[in-house]
Sequence to fold (381 residues):
Amino acid sequence: MERFHVIPAAAPPGSAEPGQRWVFQGSWCLKDRLPSAAELLTLAGPLPSLAKPPRITLDASAVSAWDSAFAMLLNRLSLQLQAQGAQLDLSALPQGLRRLLELAQQGQPPEAQSQGQFGWLHSLGLATLNLWGDLQAFARFVGELLLAGLQCLRGRGAFRARDFWAVVEQVGPQALGIVSLISFLVGLILAYMGAAQLAMFGAQIYIADLVGIGMVREIGALMTGIVIAGRSGAAFAAQLGTMQVNEEIDAYRTAGLAPMQFLVLPRVLALLCMTPLLTIYSSVMGILAGALVVVLVFGLDATAYFHQTLEVLTLTDFWVGLLKGGVYGAMVGLSGCLRGMQCGRSAQAVGEAATSAVVTGILLIVVTASMLTIMFYKLGI
Fold:
């Protein structure tokens, strides 16, 4: 290829081993049908076998015209050369092109740059660092949210009431349909599972105990939390992520308005208010599903079922369910808003933020559910 050739390069000061200079000439634009990085590596031949990593200088001083296609080609080429262990010298590139390559290298994921050199141990270290960074970001986000809540209580920087009620409608009444369906089906499954064992002893009436306690204390809040994580958590992340892409959050800061107070706080408070109510509704739907199984399948009296349910349930069970529902709602609100505020500036980043919000929300729900269950057991509640 006339526009590309490889020549030996003199050894740099302090080094006894020479390298190579890859020279680019002529026009390197999209209209010139540029070769791929693999084709250039084939033309250059195998790298020299030296005691130290070979030093390769990319020289584009003789290039008469170039565009972004040439920058993308050099970026792919440099990544492949670094994966083979070569040391690159970009000093012979035009300043604008060198700046583009540096920005592109900074945007590459660290694991993509060094996976071939370090293997699983390096990946494990990066995963640990990412986890530690996420924990720090979550703690910082919670602290900023608490400060925003305190300022709101003091009457400074309060969000608009209509914004709050709009979010309440979104996370509450509009979620009744899916919560009804999921809770009813889960109650139905729970009743059938218990009936399969209790029927052997003729104790089908105790299905009311199983469904009532299970739905009120655990499953009602858990299923509600998972439903709102997939529904409201993803919606919060997508909304805030889209605002991040459109630079609306930057406009809030420029106008002197705190995004934490006007965007995050009303969403978290709305979930804190509505999730306990949805938990009660979910528990009632599960108990009704159990009654349907007892009456239609086993032929028991509905009055006896509801009487047994009222006998076994206590106010403590309801308070435990309400507390868990509120905690799960807070976890979903925090994860959705956090991922939305961390969203990048592209359409792909919005989708990734929504996915990450759902995964983080469900993970936090499961962790807090385990912790609360163990705590209530130790306290005898």
User: Anything to note?
Assistant: The longest helix spans residues 207-245. The longest strand covers residues 55-66. Residues 110-117 have pLDDT under 50 and may be disordered.
